[in-house]
Write a structure and sequence with these properties.
2 domains; alpha/beta; 318 residues; 8-stranded mixed beta sheet; Rossmann fold
Length: 318
């Protein structure tokens, strides 16, 4: 499913359901007046309102990526994220455009060797990565409560040392039992399948009726998606792409695909409310993700729809 609309992003976002989107990827105007769409009055207040709407529509286990190039604006926005939203910072990613083997390196080298240059030439853009989860403690809360309730039903109380002894782990009262059962653990863990089977024997067959695979599924469904592809750290090397359809700042599709592959699964819903040339929509089509998005430029939207004409565009309930 791919659905795109020609409309103002804030008007459009207000119609999107709460907690309905798995991944947000936005490349908003930077307000540096590169084009008519890149000159916005009261810019920071406007982008803050957009962010608050995106916070509303994103699922509790969703992920948020935002491009920008102006560090002073980025700095102010990061303070806003911390003080005025529920987002939790995960990473500051640098898109490096001038790197060895880049097809554009020779061209970009010309901007570095100018004698009159009085500052380091900026050849990067920045990507802010946020979620709503600092760690797995909230995600594991209901699972830990379930384990504790079943143990108490069976044994009357929780004796960590006894449980560790039965599981064949440390008997000091901490260890595995503490990390999987204690509600005040700052970095709890999900009990392993092997130890869960032993725990079921400890409490008896009338308790802990759920299979471990059920607990694992609950855990995975609640935590934010991050598929470690073992390919990237916080500096990403991607070549610039040429101007497309009179849009002067398109993003590399491979870069967007990298975000989608790391932070979503097939069938997830991805949102981009600054479509531009439609890079995120095309990447979602290629990677079997659902997509909704908009742009206020009719020419851009029409061209995206034309390129996507082989795809059935159907409505998504928003």
């Amino acid at each position: 499913m791919i659905k795109i609309d020609k409309t103002d992003c804030l008007e459009w976002l207000k119609e999107v359901k709460d907690n309905s989107v798995d991944l947000v990827v936005i490349d908003p105007p930077y307000n540096i007046r590169k084009d008519s769409w890149d000159d916005i009055e009261n810019y920071e207040l406007w982008i803050q309102e957009v962010i608050l709407e995106l916070q509303r529509v994103l699922k509790d286990n969703g992920s948020f990526y935002m491009f920008h190039s102006e560090m002073e604006v980025v700095s102010d926005l990061m303070i806003f994220f911390t003080e005025k939203t529920n987002f939790i910072f995960k990473q500051f990613i640098v898109w490096n455009k001038r790197f060895t083997k880049s097809k554009n390196k020779g061209f970009l080298d010309g901007y570095v060797v100018v004698d009159a240059l009085r500052n380091y030439q900026q050849m990067a853009e920045y990507i802010l990565f946020y979620t709503f989860q600092k760690d797995d403690s909230k995600v594991l809360k209901e699972i830990r409560e379930y384990l504790r309730e079943e143990i108490i039903k069976s044994k009357g109380e929780i004796r960590l040392g006894e449980i560790n002894s039965f599981l064949g782990t440390a008997t000091s009262g901490g260890g595995v039992a503490s990390s999987t059962l204690s509600l005040d653990k700052s970095e709890p863990t999900l009990i392993t399948e092997e130890l869960y089977i032993k725990l079921k024997k400890y409490v008896g067959k009338e308790y802990l009726k759920k299979e471990w695979k059920e607990l694992k599924k609950e855990f995975c469904n609640r935590r934010f998606c991050f598929n470690n592809l073992k390919t990237h750290h916080s500096v990403w090397n991607y070549d610039l792409v040429s101007k497309k359809d009179n849009h002067i700042t398109p993003k590399p599709r491979e870069l967007i695909k990298n975000i989608i592959l790391h932070s979503s699964n097939e069938g997830d819903l991805v949102l981009d409310c600054f479509l531009g040339t439609g890079t995120t929509a095309f990447a979602c089509k290629e990677l079997n993700r659902d997509f909704i998005g908009c742009d206020n430029n009719e020419d851009y939207v029409n061209k995206i729809k034309e390129e996507l004409k082989q795809t059935t565009l159907c409505s998504h309930k928003i």
